[in-house]
What we know:
A hairpin with a 4-residue loop joins strand 1 (225-229) and strand 2. Helix 5 (57-81) runs antiparallel to helix 12. Strands 1-2 form a two-stranded antiparallel sheet. Helix content is 67%, strand content 2%. It has helices at residues 8-17, 26-37, 40-43, 45-53, 57-81, 87-95, 98-133, 163-178, 180-205, 240-247, 256-259, 267-296, 299-302, 308-315, 319-353, 372-388, 391-419, 432-448, 452-476, and strands at residues 225-229, 234-238. It has one domain: Amino acid/polyamine transporter I (Up-down Bundle), CATH 1.20.1740.
Amino acid sequence: MNWRIKPLEDILASAERKALRRSLGPFQLMMLGIGAVIGTGIFVLTAVGAERAGPGLMLSFLIAGVVCAFAALAYAELASMLPVAGSAYTYSYGVMGELIAWIVGWNLILEYAVAASAVAVGWSGYMNGLLTSWGVHVPAAFTAGYFDLKNGQLGAGAGVINLLAVGVVVVVCALLVRGTRESAAVNTALVFVKLVALGIFVAIALPNIDWDNFSPFMPFGFLSHEVYDPTLDAHVAKGVMAAAALIFFAYVGFDAVSTAAEETRNPNRNVPIGLVGSLVLCTLIYLFVAAGAVGTMPTDELKNSKEPLAEVLRNLGFQRIGDLIGVAAVLALPTVIMMMIFGQVRVFFAMSRDSLLPQRLSEVHPRFGTPWIMTILTGLLVMAVAGFFSVDEIAELSNTGTLLAFIAVSAGVLVLRMTQPDRPRPFRCPAVWVIAPLAVAGCLFLLLSVPPKSLVRFSIWNVIGLAVYFLYSRSRSPLAERPA
């Protein structure tokens, strides 16, 4: 069987022929990582996670963070060896072959584009709450998508299209077309807004913790299982692992740092710093914020909020500060959308450069130096998903693609250690024969904890992806077999 493995030297040579502009340093990379990670997972999904795990949500955050930390070390090794666009897709192409690379790249659409849609929906909840506090009422039909099942019935009062979510994607895409350096500058400024807001939340919430709210700590147990919810007239996943499989979404995006490797100065050193540094900082923040949220407000009350952190502060009597947290979320969540679309475009760019997607799509703007066609097309995809679906269902589907990518990268590090042990590695994953298998096992455990309906959608998505590969991409690949 011809696995069509693309030599690492060819990958690096291809990147040199059609390269992106290198303009990012280590601080900017870390800010990109934090900007991509801290968003809907903590600002919005805290409420849904609390509903599924109760106070055990803190353990859910910790489990998801540890799994991501193992995967981050694997990412850092491969990113230092292959500092080019494409992330897990490119690494898989050079280690496990074209078919595996295509599957990974196809699923990265779930990680980045679909994740961006989930963040846009989360942002719209905060924006709508802020507008309402100002006396501006957006019609309900335009604050939720048609396929949002929160009201129990498809299309019956749930909404028509989430215009607020669509609008923020338009603005973000315009900025990304304008330029990477400009986008990074805006991202850095808004990351500080986000960190200050979460710092204020922790400073107020932690001293007001009611320890009775932590008992029972795991009201639904540890493992994921389905429980009937009469308010939704449906079965929903419960348990610490069910919450971990959902709020794993809170960590999605740290690997977007690796997609920026081709636009980074001294990537062999700076990419590992950006990956590991941003993840460690975000994990600590999440644990403090989760403790403050579930410790100050009963989960039965917290679970119904679309702006849980602002709601917690209002419940404590800090109405004005709660509103300011809402303002901070409105300002800061677009940075996550920006980084998700940024990452997706770079994956598409690499696939197009490899001819698995039309090469015309990887055209770089002559003035701005950005892949503008791909950015616009990705934006349209994100708008379509954000406009019509609910945040939790989008997040669960996104997590399936992310987990598959993490598994591929962690396995790829081991394969490369065996097949090319002497290749220079500017960053080496410590205890790789322990860390990488733990990353694979952890990702598989989380994947099996995802609700069955999301796994069915994940399977359908991959069937479609394989059809696209065999009907279009395989024959256009430069690695296709030619007759003698």
